[in-house]
Amino acid sequence: MPPREDTVGTTPLDLAVRALGFRDRSTAELDARLARRGVGETERKQTLETLQRVGYVDDERFARTRAEQLAARGSGDALIRHDLQTRGLAAEVVEAALAELEPERERVARIVARRGRSLKTARFLASRGFGEDAHEGVVAREE
């Protein structure tokens, strides 16, 4: 693929740093972005190695930060896992990030305290990637 017209005369390192200026990215995301800009495989590899060496790109840090952000927004482990995997992160990096989070049951307890025990809350939790075991007993029992 030939380089895009807007990237002619720009180094792969410049492109990568510009992309990181908007938000943190995983190595795989940055690699794909550089590939779309017409950067060859060897140049991409060298650029990514440089950025990793100086600490601009760190998949473990990225996974931890992203997992914390999603958990703070009310996401369960399944949704977080899926998000991190789609960003090209290795399974062990994803699981390590999840292991550092507050347990799902505690996040569920906060959500239930705010929203109340109801079928609607149970549906909300399911849609946000919480496992059945994490929100067991959320639906209020009618007595």
Describe the structure concisely.
This protein is mostly helical and 143 residues long.
Outline the secondary-structure elements.
Layout: H1 12-22, H2 27-36, H3 41-53, H4 59-72, H5 77-86, H6 91-99, H7 104-115, H8 119-127
Helix pairs in contact: 1-3, 2-3, 4-5, 4-6, 5-6
Task: Please give a structural write-up.
The chain is mainly α and 143 residues long. Among the domains are: 49 residues, Arc Repressor Mutant, subunit A, CATH 1.10.10; 41 residues, Arc Repressor Mutant, subunit A, CATH 1.10.10. Helices cover 62% and strands 0% of the residues. Helix 4 packs antiparallel against helix 5.
Alpha-beta content class: mainly alpha
Strand content: under 5%
Q: How many distinct helices?
A: 8
Helix content: 55-70%
Mean pLDDT: 89
Morphology: elongated
Major beta sheet summary: none
CATH architecture of the domain at 5-53: Orthogonal Bundle
Keywords:
single chain, 143 residues, mainly alpha, Arc Repressor Mutant, subunit A, elongated
